[in-house]
User: Fold this.
Amino acid sequence: MDLVTTTSPQPTDFAMRKIVIAIDGYSSCGKSTTAKAVAAELGYAYIDTGAMYRAVTLYLLERDIAFDDLPRVEQALHDIHISFKRNRKTGRNELCLDGVIREDEIRQMRISNSVSEVSVIPAVRHTLVAQQQRMGRKRGVVMDGRDIGTTVFPDAEVKIFMTADVETRARRRQEELAVKNEHVELEEIVENLRKRDHIDSTRAESPLRRAADAVLLDTTHMMIDEQVDFVLERVSARLFERSSLAITGGEERNPSGAGL
Ligand code: DC
Assistant:
């Protein structure tokens, strides 16, 4: 006799099905370090959307394209090719601009000082949001940025909104820059972070804000491992919730898992 087969989804299918994890928040809260570790733990792809805005900024600066010269900015968006390449040695995803790795340059202060101005340009946002949606269409991604849970993937199954006190964030950024031999005064970094927070959260197009269903994570007094565990616990709770719903035949009423 044939084994009985069924086409209806099994509980484990729901638990195994890949999800989108959106990590939004202020600059230098530890979003990318946390997102990278969570992605590695789950075998998911990690996408640093801030790197993409930085890449457009680098491209425009290198060609002396004024940020308010819309026709040239639009042409640049048409020509530019942004991708990520995995560095086998470090395991890091490195940003490539027109096929060339530009990871270190996009992290420099000169880019940090201009990137918020570039990321307010609606044409830039439309182009990058569309690319990010394509990158995550098969799900199984951890994406960090400012508008992932609100605009790029409003249906993300897990949404985290990270914050931390500005001095702590500035010290972390200063240490990151020092490792790359760029020595910047703490005050300059604090000022840059405050300015970017302001521009990022007051811009008209997809401003930085916590999605109603995002879980708040204040990292001021947290170590990276604790942040990673916090997110992984939300992921497990979410997957468990899905598999329980599959068993009971219930409906998903809280797709992002907020408050779990
Ligand atoms: O995460 P980061 O500091 O590398 O991001 C650089 C800038 O890019 C940040 O100041 C705002 C912008 N950004 C954005 O507007 N939307 C995103 N999804 C990610 C970054």
